[in-house]
Inverse folding.
């Protein structure tokens, strides 16, 4: 437990610092949207591309790893769909609850994996993102538009425009060529990538909305428990059933134990979902993860 705590506290300290900076007005209100945009379109894609470009995609165990990830996601999606039929949730509410259960904070996830498992862990984690990011985005759009007729274009456009998905696809394609990153490109991308995770965690803290976490307490707590405790238990079970390696089993548990993504709030607002509920889920899950992640890692890590 002490080792886990030593790994986690600097990450949550960065999130807390972002919250404090934003609330104190430092370095200025215009900084945070610009920082998020730089990270989302440049720095974080550089990290994903570099990680996947060096990943051993010919590894035969990757197929089982990817299948296990999808099984966890599909089981969660089916349970949520059944709950919607039972409770009669409108799409505006169903969308945030789905995203609160299946989306994950990529900045925190990769920072944690990098701290625990280094370069090898980041390469495998990039594979997780290559599988999960497109699938989660599609399920999120479907949930938020469940009462509307959704065209293939509406489902595909968020994927085509998503820089994280594009970086994953480009990195995987580059890895399959076997060329490697020549002429110091790896060093250049490494410098960009090094700035991504600290800045991303600061932006996560800056995006937290504490007032939203005080509304609908029961719903927020139940959804947070599903995300932070039930999902990693399901992931550990599936990892055991698929006989994943210790590293892959740890990674699948970590990514399904992470709090939901701040970007879920943006998508919810764009598609006219309950943005207040989504903001509350992002905020409460991020705060609770400081306690739940050490517990999950101690049990399943």
């Amino acid at each position: 437990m002490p080792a886990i705590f030593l790994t986690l506290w600097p990450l949550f300290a960065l999130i807390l610092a972002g919250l404090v900076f934003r609330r104190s007005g430092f370095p200025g209100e215009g900084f945070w949207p610009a920082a998020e945009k730089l990270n989302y379109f440049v720095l974080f894609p550089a990290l994903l591309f570099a990680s996947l470009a060096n990943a051993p995609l010919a590894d035969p165990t990757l197929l089982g790893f990817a299948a296990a990830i999808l099984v966890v996601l599909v089981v969660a999606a089916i349970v949520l769909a059944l709950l919607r039929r039972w409770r009669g949730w409108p799409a505006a509410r169903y969308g945030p609850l789905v995203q609160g259960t299946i989306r994950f904070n990529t900045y925190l996830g990769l920072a944690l994996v990098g701290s625990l498992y280094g370069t090898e862990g980041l390469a495998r984690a990039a594979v997780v993102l290559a599988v999960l990011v497109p699938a989660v985005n599609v399920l999120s759009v479907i949930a938020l538009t469940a009462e509307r007729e959704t065209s293939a274009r509406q489902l595909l456009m968020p994927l085509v425009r998503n820089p994280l998905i594009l970086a994953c696809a480009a990195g995987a394609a580059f890895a399959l060529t076997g060329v490697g990153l020549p002429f110091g490109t790896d060093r250049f991308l490494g410098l960009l990538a090094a700035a991504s995770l600290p800045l991303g965690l600061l932006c996560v803290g800056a995006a937290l909305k504490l007032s939203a976490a005080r509304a609908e307490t029961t719903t927020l707590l139940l959804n947070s428990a599903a995300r932070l405790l039930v999902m990693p238990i399901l992931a550990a079970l599936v990892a055991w059933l698929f006989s994943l390696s210790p590293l892959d089993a740890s990674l699948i548990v970590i990514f399904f134990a992470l709090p939901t993504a701040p970007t879920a709030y943006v998508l919810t607002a764009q598609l006219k979902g309950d943005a207040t509920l989504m903001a509350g889920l992002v905020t409460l899950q991020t705060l609770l993860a400081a306690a739940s992640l050490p517990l999950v890692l101690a049990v399943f890590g």
User: Anything to note?
Assistant: The chain has a mean pLDDT of 90. The first helix runs from residue 2 to 24. The chain has one domain: 2-300.
